[in-house]
Design goal:
Length: 100
Amino acid sequence: MEKQVKKVVLVVAVLSTISAVAQGNGTAGITEATQMVTSYFDPATQLIYAIGAVVGLIGGVKVYNKFSSGDPDTSKTAASWFGACIFLIVAATVLRSFFL
């Protein structure tokens, strides 16, 4: 009977030690992951701004071509391309300010 009590006490001690170690490593891992993810926001924001600039240039060329050919829905095309550029810029800014 005494051996069983010692085994139970030993098992409880080992499990509590493992639990304490696992909690410490989990917190450190979550903190490291958070820092890693937040470090990607600046480059990602710059990338989205660059994509917005390229979309704006492509949209400008498309609108110019439609305007030059006398297409009647030039304003609709211009509004859609301009809206896409504004969406990219606002989305990048809002996401950055929301998560950082």
